[in-house]
Design brief:
This protein has 406 residues and is an alpha+beta fold. The chain contains eleven helices and ten strands. It folds into two domains: 272 residues, Glycosyltransferase, CATH 1.50.10.10; 124 residues, Maltose phosphorylase, domain 3 (Sandwich).
Amino acid sequence: MRDVAADQLPSGSVPHVVPNVLGDGASGSAGWADVATIVPWNMYLAYGDKKILDVQYPSMKAWVDYISSVSQDHLWNTGNHFGDWLFYHPDDDNDGSAAVTDKYLIAQCFYAHSTQLLIKAARVLGKTNDEKTYTELLQKIKKAFQREYLTASGRLVSGTQTAYVLALNFDMLPENLRAQAAKRLVDNIHRYGDHITTGFLGTPFISHVLTRFGYSDVAYQLLLQKTYPSWLYPVKMGATTIWERWDGIKPDGSFENPGMNSFNHYAYGAIGDWMYRKMVGLDTYEDGVGYKHSKIQPYIGGGFSAADASLDTYFGRLSNSWKLSADQLTMEVEIPVNTTATVYVPTTDPSSVKLGGQILENINGQAPQILDAPGTGGKFVKLNLGSGHYSFTSTFAVPTKKTAAK
């Protein structure tokens, strides 16, 4: 990140590659240049060290200020952008099935995202004036987005999965229009035969957005889809790595353009983040960075019978595993020393949840909360716990075929 700051242009624009061997004109692409804000914030979340925010803050601020300087009425509709790189588009696209998303709509979403991350960094570092200034700017950015790209009924000018995913993920829409936008996203997925059509910028967020708005069942449909375009299509074609293109090898066995057809390119591997955070449930809270306060909230679905993951944090191992046998769910949680976790136990019968074989009554002087778990067919029983090992059981009735995954 210091290299990024060192090669950042005097204007604040961030080069496409660092070291910048392409020249000053190759810079400022939405989603790529936002590395200046995205990486420092996520490093802080993962490790809890303010130093990276302190060191990178001038670079973060310079990037947001650059976007503001080339925007008109708070609308970033200038510059050259890669857009939703390598989105789905059929070879002979006579009926307009290609999932083309307006590049400036995408840019506006990332303008808002980087501004939001700058606000968060300013808050952590005690820069109250900046926090106030950029909070006011963020409101103007979102209003400009709504004025330019959103109809009164809640339809976006680009009807693609990526357009709705970014607008929802970065909270670009008024709250009263978000549920219908999520429904439009799901309808789009179904229109493509339950296939994903996103490129590099939409793919990392689509499954998270689906889960957030109560469609984790659809997220599982995408995860398990085996035909192009999908995550399992390359696997069915013999892949042992993540491909740069959804169809680096086409169904007929021919190859995509050799000028750009890497078979070792991480972008679409971003689905792993959803599998760790939502499928298994190991997630972060901003009020306890560095896994000082963790969220453990697995979403059961997809016909899976088991899932587990662990992470060695600075405090020790954080882990969760769950298994389904008939209608019995077993969940094993490990919370590191000197940390806390908010645990959500999935169940279709909250009265059946047991901890260490005992029916739950009061935990740490508090009665467990019961919350809905849309898209799973069940509910969550919410608990706040300290460090230790915990074994939960509950009834979870899922009348689907189960397969194991790890």
